[in-house]
Design brief:
heterodimer; A: mainly beta; 6-stranded mixed sheet; 5-stranded antiparallel sheet; 0% helix; globular; B: mainly beta; 7-stranded mixed sheet; 4-stranded antiparallel sheet; 11 strands; 49% strand
């Protein structure tokens, strides 16, 4: 079963706009990670935020984590056509090293 | 390229046949994971190894599935008596034990089609 639920399921924006994707999860996590997947390809790790962190930045990416609401958001600023992909959140719990993924948000950035 | 590699990239087989996939992790990574992804879904965990020890298996991993990592380097995932429901992308990932978190690096996947 999947831990996370991304919202929205699909998002279409124009190049240069910001894109915000949300993730809600069910149980406590050690950390939360965001991944990108281009169509039919493997996943690329974007950013990891630990359960004791509230916000993290990496380039045009900004991730927030609210453990009280069991939610996270990924903001991509100044989007580019190359950002078109599916974005997944994934969490690890307790002593397990496995990642539990959501269903993903499909982002389309129109040139 | 020193990333995770998987072989083959595509496999088409007939129902009832056995298939085996290989994963070569990033060389210094001691953890190796297998996931399965179907269309429109996120990856689902199958199993993982730390060095050569298989430490966790999902209940998704039926008795037709077996994974090995004999020397703590590459890993194989075998599916016996394939069924059409096994059609999916099989993803391998690796990571290095650190105190900083469990960032997993994924390979390109093996897409299995069972006819």
């Amino acid at each position: 079963s999947q831990q996370g639920e991304e919202d929205p399921q699909a998002l279409s924006i124009q190049e240069g706009e910001n894109a915000t994707m949300n993730c809600s999860y069910k149980t406590s996590i050690n950390n939360l990670q965001w991944y990108r997947q281009n169509s039919g390809r493997g996943l690329v790790h974007l950013i990891l935020i630990r359960s004791n962190e509230r916000e993290k930045h990496s380039g045009r990416l900004r991730v927030t984590l609210d453990t009280s609401k069991k939610s996270s958001s990924l903001l991509i600023t100044a989007s580019r056509a190359a950002d078109t992909a599916s974005y997944f959140c994934a969490g690890s719990q307790g002593g397990s090293e496995k990642l539990v993924f959501g269903k993903g948000t499909k982002l389309t950035v129109n040139p | 390229d020193t990333g995770v590699s998987q072989d083959p990239r595509h496999k088409i087989t007939k129902r009832g046949q056995n298939v085996t996939f290989r994963c070569d992790p990033i060389s210094e990574h001691n953890r190796l994971y297998w996931y399965r992804q179907t269309l429109g879904q996120g990856p689902e965990f199958l199993t993982y190894f730390q060095n050569e020890a298989q430490l966790e298996k999902s209940r998704l991993l039926s008795d037709r599935f077996s994974a090995e990592r004999p020397k703590g380097s590459f890993s194989t995932l075998e599916i016996q008596r394939t069924e059409q429901g096994d059609s999916a992308m099989y993803l391998c990932a690796s990571s290095l034990i650190t105190g900083g978190g469990n960032e997993q690096f994924f390979g390109p996947g093996t897409r299995l089609t069972v006819l």
